[in-house]
């Protein structure tokens, strides 16, 4: 009976390749979205679970943000992510996360002066390949120390 549990039954569907393909089209058609009236850029400060998080909005207010259902299924929001939130006029301490910016988009927002350049951008690429680069940086530091 053990043989059965090891059978790679639905391996083919859930692999990384499928996801990568999907992401490519996403990137192409999505241009950078700027905030509109009643919206504000924010940086997630901590995740509260249950589709909620605390975000420091760039207008200086920390708000409790709720991740919209549409986003919640698709986008994994992490602390430090740059997000666009919709403000609620009647509840200034609450907001809804409308979309999450990728690291590239966040850098563009800085470039366009939409968010301050003191903003920390976290690279959270799900692809494993990025790990090596980060290590190189550490080596550089050690080399500097040795001098």
Summarize the structure.
With 147 residues, this protein is of the alpha+beta class.
Topology:
Elements: H1 2-6, H2 16-29, E1 39-49, E2 52-57, E3 62-67, H3 69-74, E4 82-88, E5 91-100, H4 103-111, H5 130-146
Largest sheet, in brief, is:
5 strands, mixed, barrel
Sheet with the most strands: spatial strand order: 1-2-3-5-4
Per CATH, the superfamily of the domain at 39-112 is Nucleic acid-binding proteins
- Please provide the count of β strands: 5
Global mean pLDDT? 79
CATH topology assignment of the domain at 39-112: OB fold (Dihydrolipoamide Acetyltransferase, E2P)
Query: Percent range for helical residues?
Result: 25-40%
Work out the helix count. Answer: 5
Write the H/E string, N to C.
HHEEEHEEHH
Structural class by secondary-structure content = alpha+beta
| CA-CA gap between termini | 62 Å
Low-confidence stretches: 128-136
Outline type? globular
- Over the alpha carbons, how many angstroms does the gyration radius reach? 19 Å
User: What's the CATH class of the domain at 39-112, please?
Assistant: Mainly Beta
The CATH architecture assignment of the domain at 39-112 turns out to be Beta Barrel
How much of the sequence lies in strands comes to 25-35%
């Amino acid at each position: 009976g053990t043989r059965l549990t090891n059978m790679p039954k639905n391996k083919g569907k859930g692999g990384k390749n499928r996801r990568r393909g999907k992401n490519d089209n996403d990137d192409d058609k999505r241009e950078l979205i700027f905030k509109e009236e009643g919206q504000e850029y924010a940086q997630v400060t901590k995740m509260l679970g249950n589709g909620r998080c605390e975000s420091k909005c760039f207008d200086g207010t920390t708000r409790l943000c709720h991740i919209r259902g549409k986003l919640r299924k698709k986008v994994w929001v992490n602390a430090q992510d740059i997000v666009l939130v919709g403000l609620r006029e009647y509840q200034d301490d609450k907001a809804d996360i409308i979309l999450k910016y990728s690291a590239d988009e966040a850098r563009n927002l800085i470039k366009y002066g939409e968010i301050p350049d003191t903003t920390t951008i976290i690279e959270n690429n799900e692809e494993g390949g990025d790990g090596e680069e980060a290590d190189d940086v550490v080596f550089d530091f050690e080399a500097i120390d040795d001098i």
